[in-house]
Amino acid sequence: MRVLVGVFLLGVLSSTAALAQEGEVARPGERDTVQAPEIRVLLERIVGGDAARIPGAAHVLGPDELEDRTLLFDDVGRIARQIPGVYVQEEDGYGLRPNIGLRGTGSERSSKITLMEDGVLIAPAPYAAPAAYYFPVTGRMEAIEVRKGSSQIKYGPRTIGGALNLVSSRIPNRFAVSADLEGGGDETGKAHIKVGDRGEHFGWLAETYQIRTDGFKRLDGGGDTGFEIQDYLVKLAVRTDADAATFHELELKLGRTEETSDETYLGLAESDFQADPFRRYAGSQNDVMNTEHEQLTLRWTVRPASWLDVTTVAYNNDFQRNWYKLDRVAGTGIAAVLDDPDAHADALAILRGATSGDDALVVRANNRAYYARGIQSALGMELGRHLIELGVRYHADQEDRFQHDDRYRMESGLMVRTSAGAPGSQSNRVSDARAWAAYVQDDITLGRWTVSPGVRWETMGFTQTDYAGTDPDRTSPTRRLTNDVSALIPGIGATFAAREDLHLFGGVHRGFGPPGPGADDDTQPEESVNWELGIKLQRPWIDAQVTGFYSDYDNILGKATLATGDPTGAGELFNGGVVRVAGIEVGLEVDPAAARGLPFRVPVRLAYTGTSAEFRSSFESEFEPWGDVEAGDELPYLPAHQVFASAGFEQGRWAARLEMSHVAEMRTVAGQGAIPAGSGTDAFTVWGASAEFQATTWSTVFAGVENLTDEVYVVARQPAGARPGLPRTFLAGVRIRN
Predict the structure, then answer these.
(1) Among 92, 131, 158, 156, which Cα is nearest to 571's?
(2) Contact 735, 699 (CB under 8 A)
(3) Read out DSSP for 24-41?
(4) Which in 106, 278, 324, 435 has the greatest CB count within 10 A?
(5) What residue spans define the domains of the chain?
């Protein structure tokens, strides 16, 4: 890859230098916008138009914010912490499979939020298996948008916490070349390159993102603990004249992502974490995940009249993954071994590399294939005081499990396979979902008021088909479960313009989360009533928002997976009953230098989230993160406080930035009072710093460091054992823009 990066760099340097000599180079930081007619309904932009009048909390990190934040691994978790109300549970230190929640929903594999790329559902199987083992490459995105409150009912099926939309690179309105080339510790290298152009009727974009690292953990006996990602994207667009009586635009997006990551579910026993937090046991030496993702979307936008527009998208996503990882040792699940290492001393010794008998280590090939496909259309009408949106979507997705176990012995620190499992012998199951959804929302302007009633309708059918482990050809199902669910999801929000720069807003809506396939007669959907009340202040030099929220759950759901520490990973569902979540979100962007008219910038950013979440009933549960619950127990993996703050200085060709993230300790099992030892994550405060210099009109060099103070902390104790956050990591690179 180093040779490839060098070739790309030479080519880009040559082309941009030539353009610079011709005087056609824009200065870095200048943004291009496509000069097309305004389209009010853009499914790829969930925050659009007059954001101050949106009846709910909405946040967007645009191209400037994403480019200003220098991160070697483009971890969406570290980026999303800039947005209040977003919770991120770290796992691998890189953000490969982020766990994101909104307003106390729970964060396991981002399965309880509506996750999109360009307005299209992007989880591998959003209805049948929403756990996001695939997450779009954040480094190629130009914006990240979050919508919460009553207006997010447009973006189901999950409407309790909110929607997160990743916005991919747009086709530029003129010929443009850009390249970001970075390197850092642990033999890390990254290249992000884009080339595109647009004429009067035709536009195109070609983009690639390549990254690799050897990893920051140290495997017993040696070996890589990092990953390699290769991502490719092509966009082609054709459109009519901008002033045509009926404007049309057709855009095709094709993408492919390949990943190989030497990742594991195996953490460390507490004593070993204290001795060396970045150690990896010998028992994880064969753990590796291989994935392939392909996406295709065809978007048609039409404006037949000045007051009417329609956007229709057909989409197909295919995802294959095989996570080959240690599951059991000496007949015991790895989570149980590390939860009580004294009781499983022999098993722990094998994990550390002690010689064992045959078949002592069981490695599971978690082989799964997914598809998600459908068509959706949204219509926007501006009729006097009314701005009406109507949308409809048909969606189908599937998860296909075809898994087996291989067995090994440990021989002087090396694993030797002693028996191979037959394909499909461990899990042989297909889960399907079919869903229709529709919504209507009307933004009604009444003087200084904007009132936005809306309603969403979802109807979905789930089927789970099980086959015997001895039936790889799937000739005869052993069990078939069906489950049909329908929901009507109303909401209403309102904003009041107290002044031109000051808006009050509030709303209430029904929250809904489908149970998915495999639910029995006792399993209830996730349901809640959600309230919010807030205030927004927007001036040229300040943007501030304070929001209070309250979610009243009639029923919360838990799902037992390998990621939650369940030894079978069967996906059993658990009702959690009544839960109350309350909190406050504070977001602030201010430039005191701009307020005083000074010849430099001092951008300051703050995001704070305070949350209280507890069960209101007592029950016994086999769901690992809940256990036996008493009324008043706090929910696990939900911090009471989290803070992000940053300050920068920009003058002339120089810029520097200092930032801080603080997350309070979290329970890993529901409970009250002080968190018992070994049942929580650490509170941590991580600093980062970066600086850049605009060397020429077309190039900027930069350097930075993540985790400046080299903070060591436990970020998770699931699926198995203590896991560390990213240690201090240096990076440097160059940005090239023509």
Answers:
(1) 131
(2) yes
(3) -PPPTT----------S-
(4) 106
(5) 2-737
Task: From residue 320, give the alpha-carbon distance in Å to each of 49, 95, 256.
Answer: 38, 19, 12
* Terminal Cα-to-Cα distance of the chain (whole angstroms): 24
Residue 275: burial class (beta carbons within 10 Å; 0-12, 13-18, 19+)? exposed
How many C-beta neighbours within 10 Å does residue 38 have?
10
Rounded to the nearest angstrom, the gap between the alpha carbon of residue 224 and the centroid of all alpha carbons in its chain is 25
How is residue 61 annotated by DSSP? E
Q: Are 170 and 142 in contact (CB under 8 A)?
A: yes
Q: Are 76 and 138 in contact (CB under 8 A)?
A: yes
Q: Side by side, which strands form the sheet with 120-121?
A: 58-61, 141-147, 163-168, 114-117, 120-121
> pTM for this one?
0.89
**What was the pLDDT predicted at 19?**
32
Residue 32: what pLDDT? Answer: 35
Per residue in 91-117, pLDDT tens? 888 989 888 999 888 878 888 899 999
Q: What are the angstrom distances between the C-alpha of 34 and each of 117, 156, 167, 245? A: 20, 29, 15, 19
The phi, psi pair for 594, rounded to 5°, reads -65, -35
pLDDT bracket for residue 395 (50, 70, 90): very high
What is the SS3 assignment for 643? strand
Please give the Cα distance from 353 to 4 (Å, whole number): 38
Q: Identify residue 211 by its one-letter amino acid code.
A: I
Strand 114-117 versus strand 163-168 pairing type: parallel
Angle at 450 between CA 449 and CA 454, to 5 degrees: 145
CA nearest neighbour of 265 among 240, 283, 239: 283
CATH number given to 2-737? 2.40.170.20
Does the pLDDT of residue 38 top 90, yes or no? no
- From CA 720, how far away is CA 714, in angstroms rounded? 12
DSSP codes joined into one string, 359-411? T-EEEEEEEEEEEEEEEEEEEEEEETTEEEEEEEEEEEEEEEEEEEEEEEEEE
Residue 634, pLDDT above cutoff 80 = yes
